[in-house]
Amino acid sequence: MSLGFSEPWALLLGLTAALPWLRRGQRALAYPAVPWLPADPLSTALDRLLRGAGAAVAVLLAVALAGPHLREQWVERIGTGAHIVLLLDRSSSMNENFTGRSLGAQAAESKSGMARRLLAEFVARRPHDLFAMVDFSAAPIYVLPLTADRDAVQAAIAAAGGRGHGVTHIAPGLAMALDFFAGKPASGARVILLVSDGAARIDEETRDRLRQGFQDTHCTLYWIYLRNPRSAPLSEKPANPNESTTPEYFLDQYFRTLGVPYRAFEADSPAALEQAIAAVDRLENLPLPYQEKLPRRDLSPWCYGAALALLALLVAGKTLEVKAWNA
């Protein structure tokens, strides 16, 4: 830890600590023959104690006026969690509810609203994770870098509350999410949490580039697939496989070839979505080194407190001072 002073010139006032040793603070009493006084080691020790206390008070007050503080610093902590990029689908289909209807139908909350609410709860349960956020529809939107600021993360999730628009184009969003980890030393688990209700065809060149990005960053991928009744389950091969009509199935098959840990969670109801996010919460709890910034710490109250205690000692000594010799 590094010590600093806001007003270092005030330390010069500490030179007044020499005054108690140059002048006697007690009242001088006349005595006809000082050499006849018997030796009094206790009085000598008390005299030195009071002089030292007076000098210490002067030093402490000078230091306090100089504004002593411990400078801000970064310290390494070991938490339990991960570096998580929240990749949230903001396409127009996210405005629907789990019945496949638009807002105002049987369900009171859209898939987007439900996802944002549960993601906010997910973030609140994980105090040591670092979170980033990317929204996407036809194109990705950079929302928030990796940060431990929970207020900023919650605000970013809440800001995704407007109506979605455009189509679902996952590949650019995945590329932007991978950029958060590209070229950086690995520290703890790395996770991309994709929340989407659809997919789109990805060309072969982009597939190869994304696959290489996942392998270079050693990033785990979780896909929470918000399936409505019109969509087929990922686990069932379509009767007539076609990447244009059933892109979710082909996207799931592609994710399985990335060469990194991957898991898909199918959520076809609010309860299923909640269970999927809870499952991710249980999966990623690995040791996570991270840097925490400690703010500047003011030390002047400690100096004033110590000076006050020593002043109390000086006042006590003054009250015990003999005012006159008893005849």
From TrEMBL:
It holds the Pfam family VWA_2. InterPro entries: VWF_A, vWFA_dom_sf. Coiled coil: none annotated. Residues 83-283 form the VWFA domain. Signal peptide: none annotated. CDD domains: vWFA. It comes from the Bacteria. This is MxaC protein. It comes from Candidatus Methylocalor cossyra.
